[in-house]
Amino acid sequence: MAKFGGSPKVYASDDTKPLYNMFVDELKMFPSMSDLFHLCAAIGIRQDKRTEIKEKYEMLNVYSIDKEDIFETLLESMMPDVAPEQRLVALQEYAETGILYLKEVYDRDGRLDWDYILGLIPAECLR
C-alpha cells in the first residue's frame, strides 16, 4: 500500500522553513528535519489544532516521516472517512501548528522546556 495515497512529498510553509532550519541546523536541538517534524506533528495532534499551509515548500519525502506507518495509522483512526491524501494534508497542518508552538515557547523562554513540551504529547505518539 502506498503511504498516504501515494503522495510523495511533505510540505511546510515558507514561513516555517526558517524555524525548521534554526532548530535543526543552527541550534542543533534535533538530529534531523524528520525528527523535528515528528515532534511538531505530535504537538499539533495533541493540541488538536491544524494550521493551514498557504505558501509551501517541499520539505521531506513522505517515507522519511512515517517509515513505520505510525502517523498514517493514527490519522486513519482519527479520520476514517477522509481520503489518504487529505490525511497527509492534516498531518502537515498539525506539524505546522507544532513548529509555531515551539517557536512561541523558544521566543518566550529562550529554550525549550522538554518536561513541559512532552507533557503536551499523547502517550501513543511517544512509543
Give an overview of the whole structure.
The chain has 127 residues and is mainly α. The protein has helices spanning 17-26, 33-47, 62-65, 70-78, 84-109, 114-118, and strands at 9-13, 56-61. It has one domain (10-125). It has a two-stranded antiparallel sheet. Helix 2 packs across helix 5 (84-109) and helix 4 packs across helix 5. The longest helix is centred in the C-terminal third of the chain and has 26 residues, at 84-109. It is globular. The model has no long low-confidence stretch (mean pLDDT 89).
Query: Major sheet: size, sense and barrel closure?
Result: 2 strands, antiparallel
H and E string: EHHEHHHH
Compute the separation of the termini in Å: 23 Å
Strand segment tally: 2
Count of domain modules: 1
The best one-word shape is globular
Q: Classify the helix fraction into a percent range.
A: 40-55%
**Rg to the nearest angstrom?**
14 Å
Strand-residue proportion: 5-15%
Which strands sit side by side, in order, in the main sheet?
Answer: 1-2
Please give the count of helices. Answer: 6
Helices and strands, with pairings:
Layout: E1 9-13, H1 17-26, H2 33-47, E2 56-61, H3 62-65, H4 70-78, H5 84-109, H6 114-118
Antiparallel strand pairs: 1-2
Q: Which short descriptors sum up this protein?
A:
mainly alpha
